[in-house]
Amino acid sequence: MLIQVPDVLTPAQVGEARRRLAAATWVDGKVTAGPQSARAKDNRQLAQDDPVAREVGDLILQALQQQPLFVSAALPLRVFPPLFNSYSGGQSFGMHVDNAIRHVPGTPHRLRTDLSCTLFLTDPAEYDGGELVIEDTYGAHAVKMPAGHLVLYPATSLHHVRPVTRGTRVSAFFWIQSLVRSDADRTLLYELDGAIRGLPQTPEAQHVAVRLTGVYHNLVRRWAEM
Ligand code: NI
User: Fold this and answer.
1) CA 143 to ligand 1 centroid distance, Å
2) CB 118, CB 77: distance < 8 Å
3) Rounded distance from Cα 71 to ligand 1 centre (Å)
4) How far is the CA of 99 from the centre of ligand 1 (A)?
5) Where are the domains of the chain?
6) Each residue's pLDDT tens digit in the chain (226 positions)?
């Protein structure tokens, strides 16, 4: 399931994030890549321990908690502290799959990457190319969203970033370990949640809503791991 969540950050928050990131120290993006994806990866990245990465990352994590669509789709157990990347001058990231397990820096915890997330910090008009292309059994999906919007997709997917041939593309990216490991099970819960929310506000429909909400929570009880 590929979900696009609009307006995670306001334009003012995007502007503030961009100002702080522009003044930070950027390094070769290969620092967080394994040996295979390092061959495909050509971009710049903020150092993981950079205080600006922590501050802007925390702003993003707080904003995510206000997004019912994100919570419903991801059912997050753990969220990796956001990383930041930048592509310009023809840089790209060839086809790869993200590592299954990530060590959370500065903690003894590891995280299973069930979902991958990209939050766009530059508008499509600011650069050419740079589409995030995600492959699933229905084909390849090219994603390029306005600044402040994010895309959430199964970390099991092969994906790549097309070369940025004009301007600069800046994004935050991170991973989520979901309470529900299976993408298929998570998709069912997301659909059920959306259907319940869409029921009319009549007493009859709300009686049905309560029963379906019971089904929803009992499925979460059956499937959640923590
Ligand atoms: Ni990736």
Assistant:
1) 13
2) no
3) 21
4) 8
5) 3-178, 183-223
6) 999 999 999 999 999 999 999 999 999 998 888 778 888 899 999 988 889 999 999 999 999 999 999 999 999 999 999 999 999 999 999 999 999 999 998 899 999 999 999 999 999 999 999 999 999 888 999 999 999 999 999 999 999 999 999 999 999 999 999 999 999 999 999 999 999 999 999 999 999 999 999 999 999 999 999 9
Cα–ligand 1 centroid distance for 174 (angstroms)? 9
| Backbone dihedral region for residue 148 (phi beyond 0: left; psi -120 to 50: alpha; all else: beta) | left
CA distance 16 to 122: 12
E strands, 38-193, in order: 41-42, 44-46, 76-79, 83-88, 92-96, 101-103, 110-112, 115-120, 127-129, 132-136, 139-143, 150-154, 159-161, 164-178
Residue 221 host element (H or E): helix 203-223
Tokens encoding 164: 């940025």
CB atoms within 10 A of CB 133: 16
Q: Which CATH architecture has domain 3-178?
A: Sandwich (2.60)
| 154 CA distance to ligand 1 middle (Å) | 11
